[in-house]
Write a structure and sequence with these properties.
The chain has 206 residues and is of the alpha+beta class. The chain has helices spanning 8-22, 28-47, 120-123; strands at 2-3, 49-50, 61-63, 68-75, 79-86, 93-95, 100-108, 126-133, 136-143, 151-153, 160-161, 166-170, 174-181, 184-186, 193-194, 200-204.
Length: 206
Amino acid sequence: MRIVKEGYIFIISTFAVGLILFFSNIGIIADILGFLFILASLFCLYFFRDPDVEITKGDNLILSPCNGTVLEVSESETEKVVRVFLSVLDVHLQRSPIAGKVVGVEHKPGKFLKAMEPQAHIVNEQNIITIENENGKYLVKQIAGVLARRCVSWVKPGDILEAGDKIGVIKFSSQVDIHMPKNVDVKVKFGDKVVSGVSIFAILNR
């Protein structure tokens, strides 16, 4: 099983502390703490997994940029937006929803409200990755939550992406939004479970 590189520091450090405590022979409390740290290491191993997926292929498809549960589908005069909640049990690696060119990566400092809070996508710390192709611009927002204190982007302006390419990771529970052009037909709804690079979020109407 592959692990995203940002996870190794958590996995190794908690496992090392656990071993030190467990074999310290200083008492039952140390043994219990050691066992808990080893369990935490195993959880981090699971959390930072990078499973194999078969990327969905097809014309005019906008794929899910993340794993999770759809929180909201909305639209305005200029765009359509899908918001997704990622629990601590979901894969936290993000993928490009389309083929295109990265034209912007912006970090916005902010608060750390729970990802389920209505204002989280507005006021929380986030990375905004803008990807453009001949059909328009698509914004993928990596949004920090109460546990997710860091969003990591693996791409930079000028990078050329295929749909399903890996673009970043969020550490622990969080939210991912995608902003799409108005002329798409959204295929997900509130409560749907989605898989990064596999689930079809929308289809472009030409």
